[in-house]
Design brief:
By secondary structure, the protein is α/β, with parallel strands linked by helices. It folds into 4 domains: 169 residues, 3-Layer(aba) Sandwich (Rossmann fold); 62 residues, Helicase, Ruva Protein, domain 3 (Orthogonal Bundle), CATH 1.10.8.60; 114 residues, Zinc Finger, Delta Prime, domain 3 (Up-down Bundle); 83 residues, DnaA, N-terminal domain (GMP Synthetase, Chain A, domain 3). Helices cover 46% and strands 8% of the residues. The protein is built from 23 helices and 10 strands. Helix 5 links the parallel strand 2 and strand 3.
């Protein structure tokens, strides 16, 4: 013996019974009252928000024999036939399984037949975005100019996948996620009708867990009733459905925000060992981190949480830094737990990676690599590489200890102690004088800094390596290229705003100023031709008996 589930048993049959979509039901009722019903509608929105139910109510109202105030009476023969599934003028098609052109052709061939009993023949196409492109194109003309007795209602959760030409032929209504108060009111109505005793805290937890979907909330309520009978309380709800925020998730977020990586990993490990659903812990931890971020941003009044949890979140928000919360939320939010069957490793890796990224960011010197990890307790720490005194080259005076040379100085290098706070920023080099040549060391840093900076098509550093001796002439920085192809490519990159700005920042950083750029070829045309005559291709041709008859510049 089977029983009807709650969301089907108590499916609304009138517009006023629909929950939380007043902006849709008001318009549809007025359209029925004024006899200005459109030939095609598009209902879009998240799952469980009442799209198909609203479509059925509209079809019921249009064919009701004694509708009153834009509502069906649910007593006439047409309404009873629809309740019993015998309405011949209501055709529902699941586009997920009937998505081909043959099904659309069948509709196109049958729309010209008059309704059997009612005034309208209503077609409800569910999951309309699943129609193939060929089927959608075949549907266009029928959708635009159907017979006067036909009405199409398309329902979808992904309207962006529907052809714009179809959307333009429909009146579109966007269904919204339901507020928790609306869902609680509907669940309370079901409990009264079914004789279920449920406390307010349990219903609020069900509404939050549903995520704005009324159908999900009704299914969760039925699942709890089947498990615990007609009395529903919050403690039983948490045990069976894992709702709320478990202690594991709270501890994980607290340790993670405070930078206690070993304790955070210990929480995950114990949860996995004790059989706790790690995916549930991950989801709850992300929700808590989001709540902390919202409180720190001044939007805590928008959170829908229990008072006790909210107080705990506010305490964490005061202790943690905003940037720390952002890093933690990005690290955990990017974990895909669905593809790992509840394994704890992805969550543990996210915690470790976030901790390493945070440790490297503040302690990384301007031009040095990440500092080596601290030695274990009781072990002798090997001397840091930067602290080893290297022999000075002849004629060079070593820098005094404790006062490392500036980055731009000839003896400049890494800081003597990577763990020591960085000193003052390096001095900005003085601007170049007329006719001066850019310092080779500084120019090498420009090229090195741009080696991974890609412009429109090419890496800027790779092109600038062709410039060996840039000079300052007439207020411009002249970049002499050895190869014309590299010069032309650089001209193409500097024609873009992004390429010019990237090069200007590098020049200002290492040369002290952003100069106007002028590109030229190194040497004259004769040198270029001489270089061309010594190319591999020309030498190979000479070895095979060829000789040079005439030299031309293809750019002349």
């Amino acid at each position: 013996m089977t029983t009807e589930v709650l969301y089907r048993k108590w499916r609304p049959r009138r517009f006023k019974d629909l929950a939380g979509q007043e902006h849709v039901t008001t318009v549809l009722r007025q359209a029925v009252l004024q006899n200005r019903v459109s030939h095609a509608y598009l209902f879009s929105g998240p799952r469980g928000t009442g799209k198909t139910t609203t479509a059925r109510v509209l079809a019921r109202t249009l064919n009701c024999l004694q509708s009153q105030d834009g509502e069906p009476d649910n007593q006439c023969s047409q309404c009873r036939n629809l309740d019993q599934g015998r309405a011949l003028d209501l055709i529902e098609m699941d586009a997920a399984s009937n998505r081909g052109i043959d099904e659309v052709r069948s509709i196109r061939d049958k729309v010209n037949f008059s309704p059997v009993e009612g005034r309208y023949k209503v077609y409800i196409v569910d999951e309309a975005h699943m129609l193939t492109e060929a089927a959608s194109n075949a549907f266009l003309k029928t959708l635009e100019e159907p017979p006067p007795h036909v009405i199409f209602i398309l329902c979808t959760t992904e309207p962006h996948k529907i052809l714009p030409t179809i959307i333009s032929r429909c009146q579109r209504f966007d269904f919204r996620r339901l507020a928790s108060e609306t869902i609680v009111g509907r669940l309370r109505f079901l409990c009264n009708e079914e004789g279920i005793e449920a406390d307010a805290k349990a219903l609020e937890a069900l509404a939050r867990a549903a995520g704005g979907s009324l159908r999900d909330a009704e299914n969760l309520l039925e699942q709890v009733v089947v498990s615990f009978g007609q009395k529903v309380n919050f403690d039983a709800l948490k045990d069976i459905l894992g709702l709320g925020h478990s202690q594991e998730a709270r501890d994980l977020v607290s340790h993670f925000l405070m930078g206690n990586t070993p304790s955070a990993l210990g929480v995950i490990g114990r949860a996995a060992r004790d059989g706790v659903d790690v995916r549930q812990v991950h989801r709850q931890a992300v929700e808590l981190l989001r709540a902390v971020l919202m409180v720190q941003s001044g939007a805590g009044d928008t959170l829908d949480m229990e008072a006790e949890t909210l107080r705990e979140v506010e305490g964490l928000a005061k202790k943690a830094h905003f940037s720390k919360t952002m890093r933690c939320l990005k690290a955990l939010g990017g974990v895909n737990m669905r593809a790992n069957s509840g394994a704890a490793l992805p969550l543990e890796l996210a915690v470790v990676e976030a901790s390493l990224a945070e440790a490297a960011a503040p302690s990384q010197p301007p031009a040095a690599t990440r500092p080596s990890p601290a030695p274990a307790a009781g072990s002798t720490a090997p001397p840091a590489r930067g602290r080893e005194r290297q022999p000075s080259p002849p004629g060079r005076t070593p820098a005094p200890a404790g006062n490392p040379p500036a980055r731009g100085s000839p003896a400049g290098g890494r800081a003597a102690n990577p763990t020591r706070a960085p000193g003052p920023p390096p001095a900005v080099p003085p601007p170049l004088e007329e006719g001066a040549q850019a310092p080779l060391e500084a120019w090498g840093r420009v090229v090195q800094a741009l080696r991974r900076q890609k412009g429109k098509r090419f890496f800027l550093g790779a092109l600038l390596k062709d410039c060996k001796t840039p000079q300052f002439e007439n207020g411009d920085l002249v970049l002499p290229f050895s190869h014309r192809s590299n010069m032309e490519r650089m001209e193409e990159e500097l024609a873009e705003v992004g390429g010019r700005e990237t090069l200007a920042k590098a020049l200002e950083r290492f040369l002290g100023k952003s100069y106007p750029i002028r590109l030229t070829l190194h040497g004259d045309a004769n040198n270029s031709r001489a270089a061309a005559s010594n190319s591999v291709l020309v030498r190979t041709a000479k070895q095979m008996g060829g000789r040079i008859i005439e030299e031309r510049d293809i750019h002349e």
